[in-house]
């Protein structure tokens, strides 16, 4: 991955969101800007929103399950795990709020939410997709699957 390009995109993206959320917004804005030239990008945009919402929900469920597992067994670092679970829950809620705001936005309002059109081009959009895909659990465990 080209970390320099990722850092540049994050720097150019406005907002105080976390890194993943800024990249998601940049990709959604790129897809929205180019829907006039390729109608399939409308589907892609909706797919990404739904997938990210699902991923956030799954992350939250895993955090709750791990907290329950820790509660049932004695742990010396229980307080640290609860804090981490709380942080995961807070981050998940902020991502869900962001995705809900994107879903509720009417197509006529997209132009007011867009970043500068020169922020993300096709190559940057491809890089963002690869970077976000590498953050998914399957991509992170792919080497383990190949080894087995």
How would you describe this protein?
The structure is a single chain. By secondary structure, the chain is an all-alpha fold. Helix content is 76%, strand content 0%. The longest helix has 33 residues. It comes from Chaetura pelagica (Chimney swift). One of its GO terms (cellular component) is Scc2-Scc4 cohesin loading complex. One of its GO terms (molecular function) is cohesin loader activity. This is Nipped-B-like.
Inertia-based shape? globular
Summarize model confidence as the mean pLDDT. 79
The total of helices stands at: 8
Low-confidence stretches: none
Gap between N and C termini? 25 Å
**Major sheet characteristics:** none
Number of E-state strands:
0
Instruction: Assign a percent range to the helix content.
Output: over 70%
Instruction: Classify the beta-strand content into a percent band.
Output: under 5%
SSE run? HHHHHHHH
Q: Helix/strand-derived class?
A: mainly alpha
As a whole number of angstroms, the C-alpha radius of gyration is: 18 Å
InterPro entries: Scc2/Nipped-B
Protein name: Nipped-B-like
GO molecular function: chromatin binding; cohesin loader activity
GO cellular component, one term: Scc2-Scc4 cohesin loading complex
